[in-house]
Specification:
30% helix; six-stranded mixed beta sheet; alpha/beta; binds fe (ii) ion
Amino acid sequence: MNDDRQIPHIKSVETRHMEEREAMFRGLRNLDRRSFLKVSTGAAAAALAAGASNHFHSFLPVNVAYAAENSGAQGFTFAYISDSHLYVKKTNERFVRQLLRAVDDVNNLNPQPDFVFYGGDLAQLGRKEELDLGAQILKSIKAPLHMMVGEHDWYFDMGHRWNELFGAQTYSFDHKGVHFVVLMSVQEKDFWSARGMSPAERMHTVAGLDNAVQSAFEVGAPQREWLRKDLEKVPTSTPLIVFSHSPLYKLYRPWNFWTDDAEDVQTLLQRFDRVTVLHGHTHQVLTNRIGTIQFHGMLSTAWPWPYAPQGLPALTVQMNRPNPFDSNDGLGDGSVSVHPDGLVDKLYNLWNRNPMQVKASYLSSGGKSDVPVAPTLASY
Ligand SMILES: [Fe+2]
Ligand SMILES: [Fe+2]
């Protein structure tokens, strides 16, 4: 019935990571209280040995942080949710609950954001049932919603259902003096036809980020041409905010934390005075600046990725490695506060930690001023 199980494939780092987490959470659920105490006491002892402080800190709501930050200023705020990786509910209810939590978060923002941006990877295996479930949940968002596609949404039916539900995957719009561009940055060269792969095999191959079969993500020549034309009419003084699912730079190729034609896209963006790129896919706090372009990653609602072993941008202040006994740790959503000048302060609303704010001034100063407060709890 489930044809996915018939497909022989090497387990990717993503699959292994997911399986380990799932097994661990399953194990926790099956523990009796005595065993649970033993396990959690062990974790607490390990944390203390690593120098963690032994008290909980208060959670700072996003809206409070912004009210204080923006008093009297113009500009606007939008919120984001990303990388929910939904399976159908009977396969994985936890990811469904986590997306619902993010929807609650953005609906509870007061004042409401001007819009909510979804950063891609709504589905896990690109199935109609997964995308439909995601669309159904996202319908309850009160603010207007803008969507971006991720590789997990695309490679089962090459975007067919996603396009039916959400429209074009590449588009631009203007809002309060800012030009927004949404790209489909996870194009791959055809590795499947010659191999006679089924849609499910193709999807599994792309989902396994560290295999040698798929090609690197790229925006691709036709879309770069679309971008060039789209930007032609925009004055260089207009602030630009670009959304891409993969980071629009080269971070770590083996996990496809990478866009192969990133430099070509950056060239199209560099003539603008103020450019911010927001990306999903990396599931972590991630900060970079290349020339005038400021880059921020988005948090995932499904699972946090560890940091890549190489290539981490110097400006990134790392979030903690999450607590393995807390399935919500390292997850979250967030807000983007757009200054009147068009640059942004990015808030990572980590669900079970203090939020982290990465200000435009931190990036503009090359890391000299407004250094984000690094998390104080030890990593697990
Ligand atoms: Fe993702
Ligand atoms: Fe992704």
